Fold each of these.
Amino acid sequence: MGDAEIIPIGTRGRPGRGSGPRPSAASRNLAGGASSVRRSTAARSVPDPLTDPRADRRVHPGREASPAEPTTAGATSETAPARAATTTRERSALGGIVVGDWLAGFQHAATELFGDDAEMQLARFLAFLRRRVTGGYVIDEYGFDQELTQRFLMAALRPIAQKWFRIEVIGADNIPQAGGALVVSNHSGTIPLDGLMTMTSIHDQTGRFLRPLGADLIFSMPVVSSLARKSGATLACAEDAERMLSGGELVGVWPEGFKGIGKPYADRYKLQRFGRGGFVSAALRTGVPIVPLSVVGAEEIYPLVGNLPSLARLLGVPYIPITPFFPLLGPLGLVPLPSKWLLEFGEPIRTDDFDEGAADDPMLVFDVTDQVRETIQQTLYRLLMTRQSVFR
Amino acid sequence: MGIGRVVLVTGVSRDLGRRFARAVAEDPSVRRVIGVDVTPPRGDAGSVSFVRADIRSPVIAKVIAKENVDTVVHMSVISTPGTSGGRNTMKELNVIGTMQLLAACQKAPSVQHLVVKSTTTVYGASSRDPAMFTEGMEPRRGARFGYAKDVAEIEGYVRGFARRRPDVRTTVLRCANVIGPHVVSPLTSYFRLPVIPTVAGFDARLQFLHEDDLHDVLTHAVNVDVAGVFNVAGEGVLTLKQAVRRLQRPAVPMPGAAVGRVGSLLRSARLAEFSPEQIGFLTYGRGVDTTRMREVLGFRPQFTTAEAFADFGRSMAPTGGGRTVRLLGRWAHSLPTPTEHRHLGEVGRG
């Protein structure tokens, strides 16, 4: 019985007794003496609650969690050797719960929190989730994913629009309730946040989705390109614009492009050249009304005080902005300033009463372009006069 | 057309060509179908008489003249070198073959109809593309290599032929990617990969044409007296991510250059055929407008893009993603049936 002399204290670094599928050779051999060993360990643990009052609370959950434990306290000489070894896995409280129970738990929690409608909401969310995972959602020919836009993009942008920029919309009645229309807006703010805010505001006001026309740079950038298509954008080219307008969509265009969005802070609210008037000929060809939109407030979100043209050329982007906070404060500088925004939709300019070949008459196209531009510029000045301050 | 038409079909050694030739042979108004290719068809060609001839050689002119062929269906434009050899052989088969065939047709007074199966690849794929190409649009960047360049050249020769022989009814069908359980093409072998590499950050829009619809549209073009260029595709679009999810196969997003490298690796391992223009297609995708197909040609595909893809996917076992779907399904089972979209409007207004 060489073992018996070694065993009583410690296991010398090997896995302890009871870690195997059956009692160790030592415990089988020492059936009689086991009780004394057990009692000594029990004796060590029992006085704890007496000395330490907090320990009392700690002992109880431990006992409940592991049903094999109680035998140690009452350590009778018959049961100790016969009982199967306890592994640490058995003691884990989470291991025993099947996935179905987890889900049922969430379900009950949701009902408790949100009331009776919760189940229905949960079911809807689940159906949505399944559609995403299985690819069962539908997109239109431009790649517009209405469900994703409504449930995620709009939901994420709405608090920013309402709480951060406190957007006030004037003249939402000027947006046609149905049929094709072209919303023409000024462009500002270093990054095209005004486009996103306009999309959200129009959707909240009229329930229609604004389909933005974006520069080709957007569609050559990873992530941005797929997001843009999913949120309803398409390339700003005559073919797509006319196709969307004749399809009865509400199309948004920012004819200033990068010249408008990347202009220095000193030039704020001064409209740049309105492209080459392509948007006007698209509207003339399809006979849809042009709705001028003036956005006040977007100029101040990232005041552009500098530019790095050589680095921009190197990266193939139109400009690298320097604002008072970016890149000085790093990522923190990317937080837009909470300016107060005003969106005013002007009276629609009809294009359906022009002659057949109007779109091919450059002089007429220039005239209408100037008319739209002047309308937006005058509205901007008027809104700026009524504004109390940038942030209020 | 009347009784006793003689139809010549090129490219019958491949499955699509052979099955089309068989289908035409069953038409009672067709007296004879002649299948031409360099290698004999592998499957059952039915009553199609096979002529082993290389369309790159003047032999084809003799066949057309001797048999009094009145309808020529040109289907032997191949998209990958495949078993035919290298890129040079492929180019020769495609371009020189078409030139020889058109030269033979021009000389033969009996020829009245020419149907060419082209592809939407001629439009290319780039970030500057319009959402939907109509037949009148040119590619934004002219193709510089590979299949797209071949097809662009072939269409150029076909246009020249149509100009020189205005009495011949010339129909060019620009078909979207053909898909189906029996189709072997670069795109189907890509989707048959157990793990699908995708270009990170992009979600290409894809259109498909079911193999049955390809037969139908070719037959339709042979029988209907309409000439011109037509885009042919199933209705609707799918994005690449959507398609991969519908197959329940895991996608591995990686940068475009890495996808190209994986592609050439797979090509050398003979697992999948990848070509540079396919990377562009999988990055930017492509959409074609099919209004002319429906209104001028008068053809409606049986399968939409999504249905064609579902039919293709039915033959394949999912290799991943099934667990999440099952889990969600089990949970949904214990909940009431959701009533959709009533709720969406409310959220929008809120």
Note: Chain B touches chain A through 50 residues (CB under 8 Å).
Amino acid sequence: MKRKGILFWIGAAVFLAATFLMTQVVGNQYPFFAGYVILQFIVLAVAWSILGGYAGYVNFGTSAFFGVGVYTAVFLAKAFGAPLLVQIATAAAIGALMGFALGLLTLRMQGIFFSIATIALTIIIETVITNWRFVGGAAGIQIERPPTTPPFDNYVQMLFFVQALLVVLAVAISRYIQNSWIGRGLQALRDDELAAECTGVPTLRLKLMACVISGALMCAAGAPAAMYLQFANPASAFDLNYSVSALAMSLIGGTAHWSGPIIGAILLSATQQLLTVTISSEVNVLLLGVMLVLFVVGAPEGIIGLVRKIFHSRNEGKE
Amino acid sequence: MTNAEARVPLLRIVSLTKRFGGFTALDNVSVDIPPGERFGLIGPNGSGKTTLINCISGAFRTEPGTVLFRDEDITPLQPHVRTRRGIARSFQIPRPFRSMTVAENLMVALDFAAHEHVSVAQRRDTMMSILTQMGLASKANASATKLSQVELRKMELARAMATHPKLLISDEAMAGLSSSEVDEVLDLLMSLASQDITIIMIEHIMQAVMRFSDRVMCLDAGKIIAIGTPSEVMANQRVQEAYLGT
């Protein structure tokens, strides 16, 4: 257990060093533009699986959290000229509050009803932002990037590295949850909430924790997007595509292990980036749909489940 | 145990009423259960037995009425807090944690309901000794979905035992079992009762209730119609009417 922990942190350090090195060495800007999107989806998928995977509450409101993250950054940048770090931290705090509210919803709603409520949440928040003049309303808003600070010589490179930090943070949290009493409690309540409660699991407190952590990470992932695009409008910030993608990536990767959403996010978003360049951005959505259907039919436990199954049957074959 | 302690009931239910809309599932039920008692709860289908259990374990809120456990009013407490206080239950239809092994099912109880902090190794020992007592030791690493009906019933009882209860409520743990399996589960409950655990047993199998209980209570339409020794209750005219519908 300890050895695995050391390996994990070495892996995280190597990953961060590699992304940092990339910002210093690679001159071409495209890898950072594409890489940023992949990293962003890793954070979203990992955050989604904390509630959707571990606790089994299917959240369709990823885009609500993402959009609130974007607009928190927009508001802070416009009103106070706040630096990126403040934007992300504030977005995380607001995301945590939203997550808490969402967690209270789980008291009354489970299963499909909870999922529908999260879609409603997205629509309500998007409508509010659309009617808020200060942040640009329906037409959207242009945002000036502040001057780049060394050691980065390009703002997108910096955003790329910041998003890589968020990835490490999100994955470390998700991994910690899975291996701790929180993860075991969430797994129990996902299987059977009443039985979990009657076995001593404080289900409401655990659900609130999962919602708060998941929400904070999603909002944090959205915050740098305003600076990345230098533009924000409600239709793209609250795009339902974020919800569907985060869900699809987690499920395709597999929610039984913390690494599942990472695998799913890399696989899907890298393919999407490739398709966007080679064919068209519209094919993205098609790919998502086709992959989801294939996995639901062929490997409902995702890639993680598939790998475990193969290993399992191999071991049985040996005996 | 001093005489004074013995006189304090472990569980005291005071004028408990539970309504679902216009339907009264429990109507002014009061009963005291002393520590160490083997208490049988019977009644026709829909008489309110499981509702009463749900009110004791906290799955349902009661209005009005109070539930006192070891002299403490537990009415406002959530189910998981009641479990930690020492009330455990099994379910009429088994509710295992399906994504876990039998051992992991018990570990949830040991992790969350433990009264004091004990090491993981100690918890594992406790888990194995409970499984051995329940005759499930060989199934420790089996998935909960792979168990037979009687094994599921035993696992539910084992999981309840892992919360270290003072009061164990068994909700029809013998339903759907063969007669030899009924004896097996009954012997288990008897052995648990001998470990200073108070047991409330809901059961439809009369022979089991008669053999097991120190005292039996019969509910009908949410009201207590008889309470006493098994033979007294069986001989009661109203109990016979409730069951035979005459």
Note: The domain at 3-95+163-244 of chain B is CATH 3.40.50.300 (Rossmann fold).
